[in-house]
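SECTION: protein entry
WANTED: fold as tokens:
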Amino acid sequence: MQVKINDGWKNILQTEFEKSYFKNLVDFVKNEYATHTCYPKGTDIFAAFDYCSFDDLKVVILGQDPYHGVGQANGLCFSVHDGITHPPSLINIFKEIETDLEIPYPISGDLSRWAKQGVLLLNATLTVRAGEAGSHQKKGWEQFTDAVIQKISSEKKDVVFLLWGGFAKNKTKLIDKNKHHVLTSGHPSPLSANRGYWFGNQHFSKTNSFLKSTDNKTIQW
């Protein structure tokens, strides 16, 4: 089965695309996009892989669901297109970067600038119905993205995994911690951040410190 995805990833994931669950998932997604408004737009479903090649991958940030509001989702977790109001979680991510790295709060919420530097911005579920959070969960996406995490763990080394919130932390079991660097904290959503589980985690400076220690280029956050 042909899936339009970056060639480097296609080679790594081709066996996944051939599995029956993935074929069922494709049928489900095609039907949903034909009968409902869904996000992100079809050409952006695999944007995380298109912007960040497997060879360049240095950091993984894991989200849960795409944004389900009009014009928000662009295929990269936590990211929005230019001109779109920054959602609360993204605001808190930028606030943490502001204090952690002492750089100004960015105007653009489009995180493709991170992805192009080797940050995989991966949602566990890659599609959603408009206005219906979680509507495409448990249809096969999670099995696929778990396989992605396992492939990264087995085929790469010295990748930084940023796991924010309980859902993301559960993915720790898929990662070989002897080969990779895992940082966990509360989720940047207001509910978690306002309880003191997000701010001050310094994940952005810690990521760059680790990348330096492994002679990798740091990320311009």
